[in-house]
Design goal:
The complex is a heterodimer. By secondary structure, chain A is of the alpha+beta class. Chain A contains 10 helices and 12 strands. Chain A has a single domain, classed as 2-Layer Sandwich (Uridine Diphospho-n-acetylenolpyruvylglucosamine Reductase, domain 3). In chain A, about 55% of the residues are buried. The chains are: A alpha+beta, B alpha+beta. Chains A and B meet through β1, α1, α2, β3 and α6 of A and β4 and α3 of B.
C-alpha cells in the first residue's frame, strides 16, 4: 500500500471561499478530481499541509453560453460532462474528442477540465514511487537534495524535459481558448497558449494564490479542427504524441503538437509548406520543429 | 475570517442504502474508509494509483476510483459498492453473467468490472459493444484476456433487455 502523507482538508462552498482559503494557506494544494494529485502524493512527489477541495464549489461546474456565441466552461466540470455537452460537441468537436481520450471512462467521470489543464508535466524518471526514485537520488524535477540535481534523460543538460500530457490543451489552444484565474487580487484571463512555461519544472504560469475558475472559448473558427492522440494502448495511457490540427481553406493548416516537451507547441510556417508540398511537407516542417526525448511513462 | 483546516473530519454518507456517520482522519481515501472503517472488503486494493479499476465504486451513480478519492469528497454522497449490488439476496444480472460465463480466474478485478459495468448499464440500458469495450478498457484483468468478461457483459445486456443469451 502507498500511504498518503498527513494533511488537513478545507472544503469551500464558493469561489470566494476557495480563493480566501488559498490566500490564507498559500502552501495548500487545490484538489478537484484528484486523479493526478493523489497518485503523485502517494508517490511522495509533494506533501502539502492542506488540500482545498473544489468538489463542493458547485459554481465551478457550470457550462454556459457566452454573449459572443462561445462557451464558458467551469474548471470543475468533469471531462465526461464536457465531452457530453451538446454545445461542446457541436461547436468544439476536437475538445469533445480530447475529453474522451483522457485515461479511461471512469477517470473521465472524475477528472475535471481545469485539472486536465493543470496536469503536472510527466517523466519516466519522475512519476515513480519515492523508493524507486531514491535508488537514483531523484532528478531535477523532484527536488530530492543536492544529489538529485541531475536529469536522467539529458544528464548534461540544465533543463527539465518532463512532458506536457494534457489531452485537452492542444485543441483548446487552436480554438483560441483563455482561462480565468482568480485570486484575492482580482481576476485575469490568460490565453491557453500563454499558460505554460518552457521548462518541465516551471511549466505553469499560474501564481500560487490563483484559482483556475473557467475556460472561455470564443466562437469556433471556420473549418474543421481535429484531435488525435498516439499512445501505446487504446486505454489508460498517457500520450506519446498529441496533435490538434485545424484547416481553414483561407489560412491553411494550423497544428499544435504536445507530449513532446514541457509545453504544447504551435508549429510555424505550415501555410507555406502546405502550398509548396501538401500534407507531406506539413508533416516534414512539423517534424523539424520538435525534438522529443525519452521522457514517456 | 480565516478558516482553519480540519485534520480530522466528521463524515456523513450513505453506503449501500445505510446511513453512516464517522470521525476520520482527513487523509483517508474512500477505499480505506470502505475497507478499514466499514469492513466492506469487496472493493479491492490493486494498483493504489488509479490505473487498474479494482477499487471502482459508484458515487452518486457515477463510477469512481476509490483509491484516488478522498473520503472527504464522499460527504453527503450515496455510495454503492459491490456488496450492495445484489437485490434481496438474488444476484444482479451482471453478477449472474460473470458467474455463468466463468468471467473470473483469480477474481481480484471482478468487483471493479461489475461496478464499472453497472454504472454503464444504469445510464445506458442497452449499450453497444463499443460502449462495453470502453468500460472494459477502464479496468485491468491480468488473467482472462477479457474474452469471457466481454461475453459476460454481453450476456447481461441481452438478459436485461429481455433477449435470449
Amino acid at each position: 500500500m502507498l500511504p498518503l502523507p498527513t494533511f488537513s482538508v478545507l472544503s469551500p462552498r464558493s469561489v470566494a471561499d476557495a480563493v480566501g482559503m488559498l490566500t490564507d494557506h498559500p502552501e495548500a494544494r487545490l484538489i478537484a478530481g484528484g486523479t493526478d494529485l493523489l497518485p503523485s502524493m502517494k508517490y511522495g512527489l509533494f506533501s502539502p499541509p492542506a488540500l482545498i477541495r473544489l468538489g463542493g464549489v458547485a459554481a465551478l461546474q457550470d457550462i454556459t453560453t457566452t454573449e459572443e456565441g462561445g462557451l464558458r466552461i467551469g474548471s470543475g466540470a468533469t471531462l465526461r460532462a464536457v465531452g457530453r455537452d451538446p454545445r461542446v460537441q457541436r461547436l468544439y468537436p476536437a475538445l469533445a474528442a480530447a475529453t474522451r481520450t483522457v485515461a479511461t471512462s471512469t477517470i473521465q467521470a472524475m477528472g475535471t477540465l481545469g485539472g486536465n489543464l493543470m496536469l503536472d508535466t510527466r517523466c519516466a524518471w519522475y512519476n515513480q514511487s519515492s523508493f524507486w526514485r531514491g535508488a537514483l537520488g531523484g532528478c531535477l524535477k523532484c527536488h530530492s537534495g543536492p544529489e538529485g540535481a541531475i536529469c536522467h534523460v539529458a544528464p548534461k543538460g540544465k533543463g527539465c524535459y518532463a512532458a506536457h500530457s494534457a489531452d485537452t490543451a492542444p485543441g483548446l489552444l487552436l480554438y483560441g481558448a483563455e482561462v480565468e484565474l482568480v485570486s484575492s487580487r482580482g481576476a485575469r484571463q490568460v490565453a491557453v497558449s500563454a499558460l505554460y512555461g518552457e521548462d518541465g519544472r516551471d511549466w505553469i504560469r499560474r501564481a500560487p494564490d490563483e484559482l483556475l475558475t473557467a475556460v472561455i472559448l470564443p466562437p469556433p473558427p471556420p473549418g474543421a479542427v481535429v484531435h488525435r492522440k498516439l499512445r501505446a494502448r487504446a486505454s489508460i495511457d498517457y500520450p506519446l504524441l498529441l496533435t490538434a490540427a485545424a484547416f481553414d481553406p483561407e489560412g491553411g493548416p494550423r497544428v499544435v503538437v504536445s507530449a513532446v516537451g514541457p509545453r504544447p507547441i504551435l508549429l510555424s510556417g505550415l501555410a507555406e509548406a502546405f502550398r509548396d508540398g501538401g500534407v507531406e511537407a506539413v508533416a516534414e516542417a512539423g517534424y523539424k520543429q520538435v525534438s522529443p526525448l525519452s521522457t514517456h511513462v | 475570517m480565516p478558516t482553519e483546516p480540519d485534520a480530522d473530519l466528521v463524515l456523513t454518507l450513505r453506503v449501500n442504502g445505510d446511513r453512516k456517520r464517522l470521525l476520520i482522519p482527513a487523509n483517508r481515501t474512500l477505499l480505506n474508509l470502505l475497507r478499514q472503517d466499514l469492513g466492506l472488503t469487496g472493493s479491492k486494493h490493486g494498483c493504489d494509483v488509479g490505473d487498474c479499476g479494482a477499487c471502482t465504486v459508484l458515487m452518486n451513480g457515477a463510477p469512481r476510483l476509490s483509491c484516488v478519492t478522498l473520503a472527504a469528497d464522499a460527504e453527503g454522497a450515496e455510495l454503492l459498492t459491490v456488496e450492495g449490488v445484489s437485490v434481496g439476496g438474488a444476484l444482479h444480472p451482471l453478477q449472474a453473467a460473470f458467474h455463468e460465463q466463468v468471467a473470473a480466474q483469480c477474481g481480484y478485478c471482478t468487483p471493479g468490472f461489475i461496478m464499472a459495468l453497472k454504472a454503464l448499464f444504469d445510464e445506458r440500458p442497452d449499450p453497444s459493444d463499443e460502449e462495453l469495450n470502453e468500460v472494459l478498457g477502464a479496468n485491468i484483468c491480468r488473467c482472462t484476456g477479457y474474452t469471457k468478461i466481454l461475453a459476460a457483459a454481453r450476456q447481461a445486456r441481452e438478459r436485461m433487455n429481455g433477449r435470449s443469451a
